[in-house]
Design brief:
Strand content: 5-15%
Strand order of the largest sheet: 7-6-8-5-9-11
Low-confidence stretches: 17-31
Number of strands: 11
Largest sheet: 6 strands, mixed
Structural class: alpha/beta
CATH superfamily of the largest domain: Bacterial extracellular solute-binding protein, family 7
Order of helices and strands: HEHEHEHHEEEHEHEHHEEHHEHHH
Helix content: 40-55%
Length: 372
């Protein structure tokens, strides 16, 4: 072989290898685009509920690693709280955080995911029914009938809500009659049956109305929310324990087209973020609610157990309410029957298996407990 050609060929090979090596040393640059979704909650910015909405968004944002970002605005930033569902369905908002009972006026069956004694189920059991007992499919059926194109997730079992805040404590059912009272969902019908004049105000309007005398008493949700909303500034009596909303949860909404347009991987992240946020919310609620319960007492609030006579009257009022609603609305009956079948089985298991934790608490902290 000609020596000149051999040398030229060798130089070309070395040059080519150098170019290839240089190309390999150039780092890959990610070009993934960020999808930003604008959410609104139905809660004031200072409420722990809005904090829960932000907690969910952070979990999604962290796991999505820049591919998906949820930004959460407080109630009223774009639409009033009670208009959130329509705003998300129409695409005015990409999503939202609230409670499904707020849409009670569109189909009374929706309130069964929060109002009432739920056949003796606690909020976590209601979520079990929703996820594994047919509730999820029923919600989707209702939204479809309302032409609401949304993706809904229920999560976050709320602790049992108090009967409410009163200017004077109530000792018997007759004390409820004639009171101008705030509540929402099917609890409206229950308290109406008990003789109160109900005004279903959104969260941010309750304390001002109570302060101005537009209502005499009100319920909202928990020690942390009630404290930050200012209830102890306008009332000093809180009645604990009630069946009107003893099994409620939160709802996370996504605009249907926006959600379906996301890659499956991001939809899976959302699904698992809902589950993680549900557990985290329930743990945070125990921590914060118990702390704020003590702070409310320091502010001079007196707490009373709701008399059993009122609790029994609530159950009787609930029975009348659901009988009437089931006769008026076939979907209401369908949801009710599904809940009842699940509750009968799951409730027997829970009641038979669960030990009396109050016995253990009183052993260590009750009257007569040994002090270490």
């Amino acid at each position: 072989m000609d020596q000149k050609k051999t040398a030229t060929s060798r130089r070309n090979m070395i040059k080519g290898a150098a170019v290839a090596a240089g190309a390999m040393s150039v780092p890959m640059v990610a070009t993934a685009q960020t999808t930003t979704l604008r959410f609104q909650s139905t809660w004031p910015a200072k409420d722990i509920f809005h904090e829960y909405a932000n907690d969910f968004a952070k979990k999604v944002n962290d796991m999505a690693s820049g591919r998906l970002k949820i930004e959460v605005l407080p109630s009223g930033a774009v639409v009033p709280a009670f208009q959130l569902l329509e705003a998300v369905s129409k695409g005015t908002l990409d999503g939202g955080h609230g409670v499904i009972a707020y849409w009670y006026g569109k189909n009374s069956a929706l309130a069964l995911w929060g109002s009432g004694p739920a056949f003796g189920m606690d909020p976590n059991m209601v979520l079990a029914w929703h996820n594994y007992g047919g509730g999820k499919e029923l919600v989707e059926e209702i939204y479809k009938s309302l032409n609401m194109d949304v993706q809904t997730f229920l999560y976050g079992p709320m602790p049992t809500q108090p009967l409410g805040w009163f200017k004077k404590p109530v000792a018997k059912v007759e004390d409820m009659k004639g009171l101008k009272f705030r509540t929402v969902g099917l609890a409206v019908d229950v308290f109406t049956e008990l003789g109160t004049a109900v005004n279903p105000l959104p969260g941010g309007e309750i304390v001002p109305a109570l302060d101005r005398g537009l209502i005499d008493a009100a319920e909202f949700n928990n020690a942390s929310s009630d404290r930050v909303l200012g209830f102890p500034d306008v009332a000093k009596n809180c009645m604990l324990q009630s069946f009107h909303q003893s099994g409620e949860q939160f709802e996370i909404l996504f605009n249907g087209p926006k959600y379906r347009a996301l890659p499956q991987e991001l939809r899976s992240i959302i699904d698992y973020a809902v589950q993680a946020a549900s557990a985290d919310m329930s743990w945070k609620a125990i921590q914060r609610n118990s702390q704020d319960y003590i702070e409310l007492k320091k502010q001079g609030v007196k707490f009373y157990k709701t008399p059993d006579s009122i609790l029994r009257a609530q159950l009787a009022a609930w029975d009348k309410t659901i009988a009437k609603k089931a006769a008026e609305n076939p979907m209401f009956k369908k949801v009710l029957d599904s809940q009842k079948a699940f509750a009968e089985r799951a409730g027997q298991w829970q009641n038979d298996y669960t030990v009396d934790f109050k016995m253990a608490y009183n052993h260590y902290f009750g009257k007569g407990a040994k002090k270490s």
